[in-house]
């Protein structure tokens, strides 16, 4: 089964460029120019725009990692069927924050996400599961649209 899943994953990721077609670099350049021009106008969602990542991205491209599709699916504390992951670093982040919130490294589980949406969805999921463990009542949530979809999937 493991070999089958890995074969499917390899087949899927190697065929992605075929789905994308030719890369329109002029379109991407225009997109980049527009995003950079709008950066100073960003208000609303709290995002730190004071970043200097040029050296990191140069390393990322030069190291070859920019050409690798990694996937951190699943529990970073458990063995993964997908060898192309960054679980070792994810665990370091979890272990760093565990004692700051009163947990030992042996008594903590978590994930590291890039987006607030993933973090919010996991928070809702675990919050609902915790509240359901205390009562037979289902928690009522009032949420924005993406969380509403998660709620519907969880039959809340």
UniProtKB/TrEMBL annotation:
* Signal sequence, start to end: 1-20
Provide this UniProt record's keywords sorted from A to Z: Decarboxylase, Lyase, Signal
Q: Does the keyword tRNA processing apply?
A: no
Offer an example of a GO molecular function term for this protein.
carboxy-lyase activity
Q: Which family does it belong to?
A: Belongs to the group II decarboxylase family.
Q: What's the protein name?
A: Uncharacterized protein
Superkingdom of origin: Bacteria
Q: Which organism is it from?
A: Geoalkalibacter ferrihydriticus DSM 17813
């Amino acid at each position: 089964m493991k070999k089958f899943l890995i074969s499917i994953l390899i087949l899927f990721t190697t065929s992605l460029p075929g789905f994308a077609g030719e890369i329109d670099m002029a379109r991407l350049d225009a997109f980049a120019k527009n995003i950079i021009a709008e950066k100073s106008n960003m208000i609303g969602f709290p995002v730190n725009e004071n970043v200097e990542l040029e050296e990191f991205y140069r390393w990322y491209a030069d190291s070859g990692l920019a050409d690798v599709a990694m996937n951190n699916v699943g529990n970073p504390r458990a063995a993964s069927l997908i060898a192309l992951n960054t679980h070792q670093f994810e665990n370091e982040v979890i272990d760093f924050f565990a004692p700051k919130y009163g947990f030992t490294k042996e008594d903590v589980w978590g994930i590291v996400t890039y987006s607030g949406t993933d973090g919010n969805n996991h928070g809702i999921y675990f919050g609902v599961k915790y509240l359901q463990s205390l009562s037979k009542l289902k928690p009522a949530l009032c949420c924005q649209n993406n969380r509403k979809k998660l709620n519907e999937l969880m039959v809340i």
